[in-house]
Amino acid sequence: MITVTRLDRTRFAVNPDLIERVHEAPDTTLLMVDGHVYVVAESLDELTDLIVSYRARVLAAAHALTPYPEA
User: Which domain of life is it from (predicted)?
Assistant: First the structure.
C-alpha cells in the first residue's frame, strides 16, 4: 500500500496495483480499475516514486523470505 493525501490533508492508503491511470492537470487524479476516482495532493512524480519504493519493498521482502539452496 502507498499512503497519499487528499486535498483536505487527510491521508489514506491505496493499493498501487489497482491504479489504472494517473492524471495531473493541474490536480493529480488517481483513476482506479474499479472506477473510483481520487484527487490527491501528491504530484505525478511523487506518486511514481511512492510506487517504485513500494514495489522495491515487496521484492526485498520476498527475497528475504526465500530460502537459499545449500551448496
Answer: Bacteria
